[in-house]
Amino acid sequence: MKLYYKPGACSLTPHIVLCEAGLTVDLEKVDLATKKTEAGSDYLALNPKGYVPSLLLDDGQMLTEVSAIVQYLADRVPEKRLIPAAGTMERYRVQEWLSYISSELHKAFNPLFNPKAPEDWKVLVKEMLAPRIDFIARHLEGKDYLMGANFTVADAYLFNVLNWARLVKVDLSPWPVIKAFSERVAARPGVRKAMLEEGLIKT
């Protein structure tokens, strides 16, 4: 398999899952501005959507979208318990979280990275994010992870998105439980491995 990624982007989520799963993968960085890969390939020819992540499977198929990729990877190693079994209510709960993180957090952060977005719009975006983060914080009270004691692919995605807060000046200090969650996830060996490989942290 090969993961096409940009350091720190949402492609960090499947990268974390790959490391947590102990799966072997090749990594290829993508310049999203030029749509060129590190090896000089036309990224749009590989993924016409033009964004990361993309996972090239061993049979030559390309899988895109964070939620789809992480479920595929977790199902490869059921013994790691990165996602509950298909057909269980717990599986649907993880899918529920993946959907919420994607639509209500991930997409909400996007305007904050856009240099052309007006500052007053960014203020409104941050105000809109607050109740969504508060909802997650209240859910995490008394829990290590979103599903309780067990780390899942949804935690990898949430950690990834919450990490963007410091880059775009979203203040998370009102939610100590969010800070504790992020520190807990950051300390996991698989998470550290992915972040080291992307140059996001130093040894």
The gross shape turns out to be globular
Broad structural category: alpha+beta
Distance between the termini: 26 Å
**The CATH top-level class label of the largest domain:** Mainly Alpha
Q: How many distinct domains?
A: 2
* Residue share in helix: 40-55%
In what order do the strands lie side by side in the largest sheet?
Answer: 3-2-1-4-5
Task: Describe the structure concisely.
With 203 residues, this protein is an alpha+beta fold. The protein has helices at 12-21, 43-46, 66-76, 89-113, 119-140, 153-162, 176-186, 189-197; strands at residues 2-5, 26-31, 36-37, 54-56, 62-64.
Outline the structure in words.
With 203 residues, the protein is of the alpha+beta class. The chain has 2 domains: 2-80 and 191-197, Glutaredoxin (3-Layer(aba) Sandwich), CATH 3.40.30.10; 89-188, Up-down Bundle (Glutathione S-transferase Yfyf (Class Pi), Chain A, domain 2), CATH 1.20.1050.10. Helix content is 50%, strand content 9%. It has helices spanning 12-21, 43-46, 66-76, 89-113, 119-140, 153-162, 176-186, 189-197; strands at 2-5, 26-31, 36-37, 54-56, 62-64. It has a 5-stranded mixed beta sheet. Strand 2 (26-31) and strand 3 (36-37) form a beta hairpin. Helix 1 (12-21) runs parallel beside helix 3, helix 1 packs across helix 8 (189-197) and helix 5 crosses helix 7. The longest helix has 25 residues, at 89-113. The two termini are 26 Å apart. The mean pLDDT is 97.
